[in-house]
Write a structure and sequence with these properties.
Layout: E1 2-6, H1 15-29, E2 33-40, H2 44-51, E3 59-63, H3 72-93, E4 98-101, E5 113-116, H4 132-148, E6 155-158, H5 161-171, E7 176-177, E8 199-203, H6 214-221, E9 226-231, H7 238-250, E10 257-261, H8 265-274, E11 277-279, H9 289-296, E12 300-304, H10 307-313, E13 323-325, H11 328-340, H12 342-356, H13 361-380
Parallel strand pairs: 1-2, 1-4, 2-3, 4-5, 5-6, 6-7, 8-9, 8-11, 9-10, 11-12, 12-13
Length: 381
Amino acid sequence: MEIVLAHPSLNSAGGGELVCLSLVKALRQEGHKVVVVTVDRTDWNRLKRILDQRCPSQEHNLLPSLPETPSPLAHGLLLLGFYFAELLLLRLVKKDKLLISTCGEKVNSIADIVYVNGTPLRCAFTLPGVGVKRKCYSKLYNLLLKTVDRLGTSTIVANSKFSQEIIWKCIRREALVAHPPINLRRFVSTKKNGTRKNTVVSASRFLPEQNLEHIPKIAEMVPNANFLMIGPSGATSKRVLEKLHEMITELNIRDRTEVLTNVSFSEFLEALLTAKVFLRTLPHEPFGMSVVEAMAAGCVPIVPRDGGPWFDILEGKEGVYGFSYGSISEAAEKIRMLLENDELRTEVSARARRRAMDFDSSVFESKMLSVVKKVYSRKFE
């Protein structure tokens, strides 16, 4: 098959970008010709360092780079506008190719197959606790996309059951589920639990909606632990990083709380292999690839009591594969409990490792290749 795979930008170096590149790899291994199209040119040195990912055989870009913007919001809107243009252009000039979009959270139509990595922008108003401004933007965007939906029906694939339910509730569309691909072989540790330190690791892009400001507050309540915050950062991360450093200084925890940006994959892996606990702070998270990676590496995850990490990964089972929390004080309490009870931590860690194997990349590849085959047959044969 000849396939065009569209993604806004690979430079974010997050879970959505791993999904895109993993799908490209799987399709190429099946013998399909794949062209990747993004809005801006990819910094492959950055992706090799952070994600350990290499350049696909064919890549095209609309622009060398995005213009400078005064704020993260303006940057996001600009990228969204160009992504719309990218999809419409591909739909127009590549009619004889199968078009796949791996950013369905921004646009869930136009392409033949759409993979949704997160809560669709048009559906954010359905989530509890969403601010008035974001709710209004979401409803307006939903109205816009109702018009775009008329361009054709896409096969939607959601990254979790949690996302699947949101999509149905919001737009009454059935979605298949294929959990994101995770190369678990890279995270399986041969180290013994005795080599681990009282370290709590969190991995996330440094963006406002990640609730990363909760981590310094939790660290203050757990004086016997070191906290390590790791993740890719860019132009939209400046204010978040400034706020985190300010809080760390004010709470007097600089000696045991560290923020590391754009670290290499090997550094990230080493952190997971020596830590005891992995902490997530994003509410209503659609899935959480880093949670599974941490589990495979031997960390015990502590996640918000909602979203994909709780429902899809931990199966809503407290203390089996990990723990959940509803407040920062509860999160601190669970961390203290694990650090003080090594027998419990070791037992949960062992079960978490086994559970992580259910999300190996081979499962994702098999499901997506099956979807591609069916949609291609329906469209061309």
